[in-house]
Design brief:
Blueprint lengths: L10 E5 L3 H11 L3 E7 L5 E8 L2 E8 L20 E3 L9
Parallel strand pairs: 1-4
Antiparallel strand pairs: 1-5, 2-3, 3-4
């Protein structure tokens, strides 16, 4: 049995240090449609939600300064990513 998706795209979360600059880039430069903001549960801060086609881009501005910044160097600079979400219709079955 495999995953049955309830959405044809993934959603991405991007944690940023400069909320206004990031929001201006994704909304005004790239043209992603701003669909709302919400407070982040638990840790404070704000999530700006923008649509890129059917993908939701979640620009997260923490409520406090974080200790660590992502290393530079592009693809060869480090492993990993922050987070992404898939919408699953058959989670209980899995």
């Amino acid at each position: 049995m495999g995953v049955k998706l309830s959405k044809d795209s993934i959603d991405l979360g991007i944690v940023v240090s400069d909320g206004p600059k990031a929001l201006a880039f994704y909304r005004d430069v790239l043209g992603f449609r701003h669909v709302g903001d919400m407070p982040m549960p638990g840790g404070g801060g704000t999530m700006h939600r923008l649509m890129c086609g059917t993908s939701l881009i979640k620009v997260v501005v923490p409520g406090t300064e974080l200790d660590t910044k992502a290393p530079g160097g592009g693809i060869q600079g480090a492993y990993g990513y922050r987070y992404w979400t898939i919408s699953v219709a058959n989670l209980d079955e899995l």
